[in-house]
Specification:
The chain is built from 16 helices and 14 strands. It has about 450 residues and is of the alpha/beta class. Strands 3-2-1-4-7-6-8 form a seven-stranded mixed beta sheet, with helices on both faces. Strands 11-10-12-14-13 form a five-stranded mixed beta sheet. Strands 5-9 form a two-stranded antiparallel sheet. α1 runs parallel beside α2. About 5% of the residues have low confidence.
Length: about 450
């Protein structure tokens, strides 16, 4: 097959032979002349017959396949880039079905001399028989695409995705392609887009370059993707400490008060019980069958939990041994969830929701902000407080004291607050500065007073 190759289509794939075949068939019906484009399938360790299917496939365009051991989507795309001949490279995920005008729209978006990276719409088709997770994903994608199409919207690197992306081959070589240290799902597209922005590349959106995405993952697979995204979000942040990869990674202390406490408890359970995430998947799978009205909200919260499981796993990497202590601190919060009955937990949430002004968790975060910044990260400190919280009777006092302790621990994450004295530092949480000595089993000395009964103390040896 001869002719000038304008576009090289690179499709990374792993164990999805049928999806690749659907994409190849759709690519045979493009409005662009078949001699003007080629398709390269980068097989990332698949052993499901993808290679044999491509060998048999009768394509009107130039088609080639390359196989490599499983190394992730970034490495597979780079392998395709190295053998591509086209002036413009279009990246498609293997679950995409490009519309007839997709490739021509991508090619026209890159006139000679332009420096652009362009994404096209990736709507997820649904019908009444589609599983609820597919409806949930479709609604999320539609919301994102609506925002991209708003007049005057200026794309940022967080808007980009590599499932339907095009840019000139020389630009890819200039910035070095995808970062192959991203072996897990997620953030390799953000990372490339950020480097493109720093290189002065314009980010664009072409509504005509449409490719349908046939979302075929169940909740378990989507949850594992979210877990991987939490891990790669930390990797991104370490590579680009001046840039936050996603609002989610910077938003641990945001969200409703009730969910923040429950999520902390679930993360603590995950450190104690390695199979706990699997139990959450099993519970959500059963709920899907019942399709409760609150299912979208349950999806949102459970997937947020899996993101943080992945982030927590990345933070426990051997290169940061001090972070291992974070597991214990998070586990302490589990006691708030499992130590009391559901009735008491619901009571606390109702009190927070109906409280006037800032909720109690937000007040603690603001009250302890100065102390949190002064404490060594991932270290351990003791805890000193009043003998009994003011305003509590003999029955309520222990519950209120434990509640104050857990709120202190939450407000000071990632420092671990222990009820005993590991030395040499302890935090003081008093109703007033006058209560400094009332709850101490050892005589502490004041290091710094942050006001409002919040203090940093040095504990004396026994």
């Amino acid at each position: 097959m001869t002719g000038h190759i304008r576009v090289s289509v690179v499709i990374p794939t792993y164990q999805r032979c049928a999806s690749v075949q659907r994409a190849l068939e759709a690519l045979g019906h493009q409005t662009m002349t078949a001699t003007e484009y080629e398709v390269i399938v980068a097989i990332d360790g698949s052993d499901d017959g993808t290679t044999e299917m491509i060998e048999r496939f009768q394509a009107p365009y130039r088609l080639s396949a390359m196989w490599q051991p499983n190394r992730g989507r970034a490495a597979a795309r780079n392998a395709g880039i190295r053998v591509a001949c086209g002036e413009v490279i279009v990246f498609l995920d293997d679950d995409m079905e490009p519309a007839p005008g997709c490739l021509l729209a991508h090619a026209d978006a890159h006139p000679p001399g332009s420096r652009r990276a362009v994404i096209g719409p990736v709507p997820i088709p649904v019908d009444v028989s589609s599983p609820p997770i597919v409806h949930y994903r479709s609604e999320g994608i539609e919301s994102h695409l609506s925002r991209l199409a708003e007049p005057g919207h200026r794309l940022g690197f967080r808007d980009m995705y590599s499932g339907n992306l095009s840019l000139r081959r020389d630009l890819l070589h200039e910035v070095g392609g995808f970062d192959e240290t991203f072996t897990l799902y997620g953030h390799e597209d953000y990372e490339l887009a950020l480097r493109l922005v720093k290189a002065g590349v314009e980010l664009g959106y072409s509504p005509q370059a449409t490719a349908l995405q046939y979302y075929e993952k169940d909740f378990a697979a989507f949850a594992r993707d979210c877990l991987a995204r939490g891990h790669t979000a930390v990797l991104f942040a370490r590579k680009h400490p001046d840039t936050t990869s996603s609002p989610q990674l910077a938003g641990y202390h945001t969200g409703s008060p009730g969910w923040r406490l429950v999520r902390s408890g679930m993360l603590g359970l995950s450190t104690w019980l390695p199979r706990f995430p699997e139990w959450v998947i099993a519970a959500m799978t059963r709920l899907e069958q019942r399709r409760p009205r609150r299912l979208p909200g349950l999806y949102r919260r459970s997937l947020d939990y899996f993101f943080w499981v992945g982030a927590q796993s990345a933070l426990r990497a051997p290169s940061r041994p001090g972070l291992q202590r974070l597991r214990f601190g998070l586990s302490l919060m589990v006691l708030f969830v499992v130590g009391y009955s559901l009735r008491l937990a619901a009571r606390e949430v109702r009190e927070l929701q109906h409280a006037s002004g800032p909720d109690e968790i937000s007040r603690y975060e603001a009250r302890f902000q100065g102390l949190r910044q002064a404490l060594p990260p991932y270290g351990r400190v003791g805890y000193v407080t009043d003998a009994a919280p003011q305003g509590g009777d003999d029955v309520e006092a222990p519950r209120l004291a434990f509640k104050r302790y857990l709120l202190t621990q939450y407000a000071l994450v990632p420092t671990i607050v222990l009820p005993e004295y590991p030395g040499p530092l302890a935090v003081g949480n008093f109703q007033s500065p006058n209560g400094l000595n009332s709850g101490a089993r050892r005589q502490p000395t004041l290091v710094r007073d942050f006001g409002g009964g919040v203090m940093l103390l040095r504990t004396a040896a026994e």
